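HOLO CASE FILE
Compound: adenosine-5'-triphosphate
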Amino acid sequence: MDWAEKYRPRHLSELVGNRESLRQMSEWARQWTTETPPLIIYGKPGIGKTSSAWALANDMNWEVVELNASDQRTKGVIEKIAGGSASTGSLSGAFRKLIILDEADNLQGNADRGGARAIAEVIRQAKQPLILIANDLYGLDGTIRNLCTKIQFKALPAKSLVPRLREICSMEGITCALPALNDIAEQASGDIRSAVTMLYASAIGKDKVGEDDVSISSKDSRSTIFDLVAATLGYRQVTSLQDLNMTVDETPDTVLQWIEGNLGVLPDTKKNAAAYQALSRADMYLGYTYKTQYYTLWRYANILMLYGVHDVMKGRPSGYAKIMPPTRWRQMSTAKRQKLMREHLLSQLGISMHMSSASVRNIYLCPVSLLARQFPQSFVKDYSFDADQLNILIHDPDLAKSIVKSIDEEKKSLEKELKKKKKEEEALAKKNRTLKKTEPDIKVQLSSCNETDSALVMIDDNEKESETNVNKDKKSSQSTLFNF
Ligand SMILES: Nc1ncnc2c1ncn2[C@@H]1O[C@H](COP(=O)(O)OP(=O)(O)OP(=O)(O)O)[C@@H](O)[C@H]1O
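Model generated. Tokens follow.
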């Protein structure tokens, strides 16, 4: 068994980091009733989302049913598992059954004809605790997203990974040099699964793991790109930048973005300009390459970006460099998320207005925004918008947040009331049923009453008869004038 699986945390207390998120999960589970909204746990891969859901179930002594993207996750299937009784009464003695919908951002992919809204309805009615797990919160359908309580899991800083790696080493009975552990933790970029797997790969067949074992075993592109960028910027001395570049498993345009992202602002403006000029020339060669499909030109791009920038940086004292992935990528991923959100909103509006998303965007977005500003509550209710989506239309994040919050609260209290009413109705129906059950006894009693009544009547009649007889007798026994 690989170590990532072998050392999967079994209890919440064994998980590293994200303490506040774990506390919220535990609180949710302890206070769970059929009225509690399901959870969405979201965040980067390999940081403990799935493990925490399993660990929670273990801590609560709940059974687990996990539905992955490969399973058929139709409305019918989820309904079958999540519906039914609120307690399992299972053979294992578990009181509840935690349903885990992993990769929930892919839920609609294989949904049945009812689609996401139907699944949302099933989730709303679920009689068992339910946790949805996703990498991208906005990959989830809006209706489903708005139904759930959201908990974010964040990637962990390298320093919090090292103790966990050390713990695994001691459990495996191996020694690992601290710089090697630091190296692994740095390279993992907050992904614990990747850190544990790297440690496993470095330690195969060894009792001791040194720094060299890590760099040899980790053919991870990020480790060499860090080296390459550090060497290009003059923080590290290497014999040949070109040779080092050959070992990097990245295309030249990615390397260029890494160098540009870590260039920073140099105090000497002339040097700054020269570095950017080298990058710009390299970029031109990349353009020629893609235009002509003549990949020999890559070499020119590489030489220009590596040696061009290195030449400017000459004389920098070597030492520690904090090399980071280009901020442009982070901005791009935020922009991508916003784009996804916008597209989803336009398609929702388009469906209700019977037109394409493009028409809504190009022609009607302005009047729709004005309407949304006038009637924000109706928009949120009709389209199940969350605060971010409403904000796209009304451009007022605080107002959007407060409107969505108040509607959520209203919805919750309404649902509570409905459930209360339903419970009352159920109780009344139950009472009626028990009354009906006891009715035949009453009938029996009544019929037996009738029988006694008739018996009494009979007795009465008999008595009357006997009375008349007696009377007759009396009469007959009485002496009359005729007897004499
Ligand atoms: N917080 C953590 N503490 C300890 N180990 C962890 C933690 N997070 C992840 N791991 C290790 O990584 C492995 C994978 O974790 P898990 O499946 O929970 O990640 P995930 O966030 O759900 O990833 P994905 O989104 O890819 O499913 C675990 O088996 C465990 O070995």
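CASE NOTES: Residues 122 and 233 are 56 Å apart (CA to CA). The chain has 20 helices and seven strands.
CLOSED: yes
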